[in-house]
Amino acid sequence: MPPPRILKTHLPIQLVPPSFWEKNCKIIYVTRNAKDNLVSYYHFQRMNRGLPNPGTWPEYFEKFLAGEVPWGPWHDHVKGWWEAKQRQRILYLFYEDMKVDPAREIQNVMQFLEKDLGDEVMKKDH
């Protein structure tokens, strides 16, 4: 597939293929606060029959805090990407910031990608 290419993943930093770093890829990482992740993970695991039963909410809460969920510790995931942004081309975004000021965050993404949407697109009411 010719560039530019877009890939979406939930991988922790240590599982990203080395070619990403060798090719100096640009990466946009979006994180969400731990509480909302916990709720989302719990409901996703409840509905996904391919994953172990999450148990009760209190049980899952303790598993999440201990990092004993199928995706591993949330804090290790976000911390790994946070630290990597110091040495790799990673734009680290917060979901909550996107909700508060989507136009600002879109501008941040466009600047990172060295693209311009133009004022008319940014001012367009959706």
Automatic annotation (TrEMBL):
Its EC number is 2.8.2.-. It comes from the Eukaryota. Keywords: Transferase. Pfam families: Sulfotransfer_1 (PF00685). GO terms for molecular function: sulfotransferase activity. It is an enzyme of class 2 (transferase). Residues 1-124 form the Sulfotransferase domain. Belongs to the sulfotransferase 1 family. This is Sulfotransferase. The gene is LOC115473982.
